[in-house]
Amino acid sequence: MKTFTFGGIHTADMKLSAGKKIQIVPIPSEVIIPLEQHIGAPTNPVVAVGETVKVGQLIGKAVGFISANIHSSVSGKVTKIDTVIDAWGYKRPAVYIAVEGDEWMENIDKKDVVRKEITTKREDIIQKIADAGIVGLGGACFPTHVKLSPPPNTKAELLLINAVECEPYLTCDHQLMLEKAEEIIVGIQILMTVLQVNKAIIGIENNKKDAISLLQQITSSYSTIEVCPLAMCYPQGGEKQLIEAITKKQVPSGQLPINIGIVVQNVATTYAIYEAVQKNKPLIERVITVTGKKVAKPGNFLVRIGTPLRVPLDMAGGMPEDTGKIIGGGPMMGRAFMNADVPVTKRSAGLLVMPTLESARKEMQNCIRCAKCVTACPMGLEPYLLMSQAEKSMWKEMEETYITDCIECGCCLFSCPSNRPLLDYLRMGKSTVLEQIRNRVQKVN
Amino acid sequence: MNKLIISPAPHIHSGDSISKNMYAVLLALVPAYLVGLYFFGIGAFVVSITAVLSCIIFEFLIQKFIFKTTTTIHDGSAMLTGLLLAFNLPSNLPIWIIIIGALVAIGIGKMSFGGLGNNPFNPALVGRVFLLISFPVQMTTWPKPIPFNTSYLDAETAATPLAMIKYNFGNLPEKMDLLIGNMGGSIGEVSAIALILGGIYLLIKRVITWHIPVSMLVTTFLFTGILHLINPSLYVSPDIHLLTGGLLLGAIFMATDYATSPMNTVAQLVYGIGIGLITVTIRLFGAYPEGVSFAILIMNGVTPLLNLYVKPKRFGAPKTKKN
Ligand code: SF4
Ligand code: SF4
């Protein structure tokens, strides 16, 4: 079975919520919808306080090319436009809406029938995706319409669907595939039309055997879509790792997948694209996993954007007595939250509750030069060296040691027997180096 | 509700730790140790206990009274240094010499550089080579392997196979004896089977990778093999070289020492090949019949250079050098 060849780690799978049916989370009485849920410029609010809005109505308009529209996920009255302390403690502008009923925009098709026929013209598809505010749901939150508009001198030849879900604990993509397989295949066809490619491969890790056989069964009648089971290894869901696992091609350092003719889309994004193009439905809800060893009923939940995370958490049995940390996303790349009252955004793939004992980092020890961080690094970097350079603010040396290649996957820190905070230092170094590079480029221009 | 912890990703850890690695190596040494106890009896016991205890005590004293820091003796690394030192000593060595060896190993080999991870040379080998140079006679008279031997300092002595080859005397032990360890030699180096068993355990536990031992053993095998083909009467067959003189002990347990070996697999292969070449050169053309310890120490010294110039394969690196 295929997998990527550089580094990587084997973690405990911990898919506690695997196979759990997607539950619909009731609409809360108030939602708080941040106006910035993507990489790029924040949106401009286009509603006023006191205005009534419907489900799917545009409330934040994209500014500039790299940005994504924000829609109301509920119907009701805008009570204020103010800042909200988001999950990471930053203040962000947000629209507060008091919920009244559940009235949808008329053009949205709410029927639960798979619409297979693609009638939208190719040129209009990208516009529809942009209008619907679709962003990469795999974690990056990069506006999808931008990713689907290849830069000049590049041409997509292959579409890869990222259904790896290599983060331990998370199962939302897995469950979505089980319940919405037909729709996802339509989404893939839409993407193939947009990109004008005649081959798509779905990469899935082998711990999701049911999804693999279901998708294989559906795709058997399509000669252009293929399912590729992958041996489990983290971070296979990284774009570059997934591409190498499936095609054996390495995206050159400093370049994008499109430079070698490949576009990667996450499977949940593909479903959102289906809904946007076939059903006119903007990105107003998403499936998230709520899980943790001490969580009473781990599960997968369909939740409206802007709902406080506490609502699905309560459905999963509430915050356990023994809680040391709550994490938005998976345990490898997710971020620790200050509390569970923060609103669900397009970025939230899950809520992971960690017991106290597993929450605190262990005390750091001397580097024993065991090279386990080097072996684990999927980019072939030298984390121990980069960390010692970062400690001494040796930014130039870090750049020469290829810090910009780091994908921040955390494999180095995971593997270090001395519990050295490698990635913390590497992140700091990477952002400093990237800033220096930007300044250099600006000076030249 | 009590306060939630905020820390950056990742939020899970492999559970690996320094002590886990150290105790895994200690466990992997047990088979060879048992064989050593069997063939060298009381002497092996006294020597090993002395070496281990003095290493632990010296580390404790140095950290407590000179560095004035918390001690790390519980992490198992001092114990490991002690046992590896003992593995490289003859079982009839007087206690006071062992204590000097332990002091040099821990004090000079490890602590003078700042402790675990900072030492450029393998501490146990520093101790051993110091003793070899200072006490050449005591360090090169090995007791004869006698099961459950009860004599210590006055044990009957025997030559090692490599000494027999070097100085052209005696009859080499049978192959089977070489495999199980029925020959003269240092306490832990004699039993090929027991050492390989330990090596397999370490590979399975991912404490070490294959690169250093395999490149070192293959190089030794090929180098001595070629010479043997050219002139069989002058050079013994390569399998004798593999099974004697602590080559396996060195390849599996000494050359793989984390702090003193290179930091990526490519450099590790170069390092292993280097040790193999130097070992054979010393054995066949040098003054000593044995060369593993010196070869490893020499390549320890080359390790910083290897780390600087032999870099790991990078994902997506341009094919041509310097983009
Ligand atoms: S976080 Fe960066 S340095 Fe660490 S393993 Fe991942 S890519 Fe390598
Ligand atoms: S894994 Fe940790 S202890 Fe080992 S070399 Fe890397 S930083 Fe040092």
How does the SSE layout of this entry go?
The complex is a heterodimer of chains A (445) and B (323).
Chain A lengths: L21 E3 L5 E5 L9 E2 L6 E2 L4 E4 L8 E2 L4 E10 L5 E9 L22 H10 L12 H4 L10 E6 L8 H8 L1 H15 L4 E6 L3 H11 L5 E6 L8 H9 L14 E5 H13 L5 E7 L7 E6 L5 H6 L9 E4 L6 E3 L12 E5 L1 H4 L12 H5 L6 H9 L3 H6 L10 H5 L6 H23 L1
Parallel strand pairs in A: 1-14, 9-10, 9-12, 10-11, 13-17
Antiparallel strand pairs in A: 2-8, 3-5, 4-7, 5-6, 7-8, 13-14, 15-16, 15-17
Helix pairs in contact in A: 3-5, 4-7, 11-14
Chain B lengths: L17 H50 L9 H11 L7 H16 L12 H12 L1 H4 L2 E2 L13 E2 L2 H6 L8 H6 L11 H13 L6 H20 L7 H6 L3 H8 L10 H21 L6 H18 L14
Antiparallel strand pairs in B: 1-2
Helix pairs in contact in B: 1-2, 1-3, 1-8, 2-3, 2-4, 3-4, 4-13, 8-11, 9-11, 9-12, 12-13
The complex binds iron/sulfur cluster (2 copies).
The site of one iron/sulfur cluster has 15 residues of chain A, from helix 13 and helix 14.
Provide a descriptive summary of the structure in words.
Chain A has 445 residues and is α/β, with parallel strands linked by helices. Chain A has four domains: 27-99, Beta Barrel (OB fold (Dihydrolipoamide Acetyltransferase, E2P)); 122-279, Rossmann fold, CATH 3.40.50.11540; 285-359, Ubiquitin-like (UB roll); 372-444, no CATH class. Helices cover 29% and strands 19% of the residues of chain A. In chain A, α3 runs parallel beside α5, α4 packs across α7 (267-279) and α11 (383-391) crosses α14. The longest helix of chain A has 23 residues, at 422-444. Chain A is globular. Chain B has a single domain, classed as Orthogonal Bundle (Ammonium transporter fold), CATH 1.10.3430. In chain B, α1 packs across α3, α9 (211-230) packs parallel to α12 and α12 (265-285) packs antiparallel against α13 (292-309). Helices cover 59% and strands 1% of the residues of chain B. Chain B has a two-stranded antiparallel ribbon. Chain B has 323 residues and is mainly alpha-helical. At the A-B interface, β15, β16, α10, α13 and α14 of A face α1 of B. The structure holds iron/sulfur cluster (SF4) (2 copies). One iron/sulfur cluster (SF4) is lined by residues 376-379, 381, 383, 406-412, 423, 426 of chain A.
